[in-house]
Each structure stands twice: as structure tokens, then as C-alpha cells.
Amino acid sequence: MSKPPQPAAAVVELLPGISALAPGLLWLHASRAIVAADVHLGYEDVIGGALPAWSTPEIVRTLLGAAGRMQAREIVLLGDVIHGSRMSEGAARVVREGLDMLRGAAGLTLVAGNHEGRTRGAAVLGETVETLERDGWMLLHGDKPCLARSIIGHLHPSLPLGGGASAPAFLASNQLVVVPALTPYSRGLDVLSDACLQALAPFGIAARRQVHVVAAAGEQLYPFGTLSKLRTIIGCARMDTSGRARR
Q1: Domain spans of the chain, in order of start
Q2: Contact between residue 183 and residue 38 where contact means Cβ atoms under 8 Å apart
Q3: Alpha carbon 241 to chain centroid distance?
Q4: Positive/negative CA dihedral, 15, 21, 26, 29
Q5: Is 130 helix (H, G, I), strand (E, B) or coil?
Q6: What is the Cα 197 distance to its own chain's centre?
Q7: Is residue 25 classed exposed, middle or buried when 0-12, 13-18 and 19+ CB atoms within 10 A define those classes?
């Protein structure tokens, strides 16, 4: 992964055969599969209905748009498909209808994540899988360690922008790709923090120089080179392990 930084674009190649798509999706070229992580459908209802229930239809529209543009054969939701398995019947209906729309656009594969709960969300989601293989990579949620070449979600990686703002970020190495969360509700794990490197260690990542960062902002992606280079540029010697966040 020694390629020079690329300019901002709507599509950025992370590795041969794997590209990042704005606003935070992964594209597997050979499988023609779109991968989205941590969509957390039904979020507003699961936390108690304190917010307008807008995120589920918005996420479904984003996925349908990407599937149409890329002529995808498959959509993979990489765990934490729902925010929790206990939701109102009205919210469950909206989630089921959204998933049915995705199934109408392409094949749909749902990977179980920690937010699906002990039942793996079967009442709302139907069939889920723990892992699957595509294009020589193992796809799994990421809440359990794996030393195979893996594509995971779960960590919600993000790049701090200052003033409390952050941008979702892809992390990519020759053995691990971390897809940012598509939900708008979780700031996630600060990629510049020591906590980020600690979270990557169970997947065989030992040094920041192994990992490249691509941040997503709206319809543009911004490649920043390696984590070690980015920390040097930003002056991150002061960073500590405060980057942990609940996922």
C-alpha cells in the first residue's frame, strides 16, 4: 500500500478489487457487491421514540441509489442491521419494508451483529449469517477477533474534524478493511487515538503504517495516506486512549 495520496472523489480504490463509495459504502468489484456497516435501522424507536423516525428510510434510499448506480448484484449489511431487537410493531414494519425494497434491487445478505441480540433479530430480519466469503475476503461484523483477511464493521471509525465534529472513515490494509458506520447517530472510534490501534490488534494490525485512511464527507471521499502519516501531519503526539466510544 505505497500508492501516493489520491484527490477527493466519489469513488476511491482502497485495494485492488475493493473501492470506497461515498457516502460510506464498500464496493467489491468481482462480486459486484455493495457492503454497508452498522446501519442501525429503527434507531429512533429502539431508544424510546425521542427522535423523529427518519434514519431508516434515508439509509434505505442511500443503499438503493448506490445499488442502482453500480448495478449491484448483492447488498451486504455487515452487522448491527437494527439498533435492537425490541422495537414497536410500527417500526418493525418500516424496517421489514425497507429490507424488502433492498431485496427487490439486489440479493440481500444480512450479517448478524452484537445489536441484533441473542435472537439475532430473527423476528424482524429473518435469516442472518455470522460470516460470508466474497472475493477472497472474510466478511463479518467485527465484534469477535479474526486473523483471516477480513472486512468488518463494528468499530464505527471516524476522523475528528475539530469542534466536536467528525467524518466517518474507512481503514484499509492488505489484511483488514474496516467499513464506517452508515448510521448518522454514532461518532464512533477516533482513528487517531491509541484506542483505535488497540481495536485493530485482534485482526493482525500491529502498526499504524499498515493502515490507510479515507474519510467520507457528503458525496466526496478524502484519502489521507497512512494512519502514521496522518498523525504526524496533525501533530497527534498529544493523543491518548480517549478515543473509545460505545458501539
Answers
A1: 11-238
A2: yes
A3: 22
A4: negative
A5: coil
A6: 17
A7: buried
Residue type for 87, please? Answer: M
Rg (CA), the chain: 17
Residue 145, C-alpha cell as written in the block: 477477533
Q: What share of the chain is helix, strand, coil (3-state, %, to 5)?
A: 30, 30, 40
Q: What is the C-alpha end-to-end distance of the chain, expressed in Å?
A: 29
Mapping DSSP to helix (H, G, I), strand (E, B) and coil, where does residue 189 land? Answer: strand
Question: 11-238 has which CATH code?
Answer: 3.60.21
Per the listing, cell 457487491 goes with 33
Q: Interhelix angle for 89-105 vs 55-70, to 10°? A: 0
Query: Distance between CA 7 and CA 163 in Å, rounded?
Result: 25
pTM for the full predicted model = 0.91
CA distance 48 to 110: 25
Distances from the Cα of 33 to the Cα of 20, 74, 76, 113, 221, angstroms = 12, 5, 7, 19, 19
pLDDT tens track, the chain, 247 positions = 445 556 778 999 999 999 999 999 999 999 999 999 999 999 999 998 777 889 999 999 999 999 999 999 999 999 999 999 899 999 999 999 999 999 999 999 999 999 998 788 999 999 999 999 999 999 999 999 999 999 999 999 999 887 778 999 999 999 999 999 999 998 789 999 999 999 999 999 999 999 999 999 989 999 999 999 988 887 643 444 455 544 6
- Which amino acid makes up residue 112? A
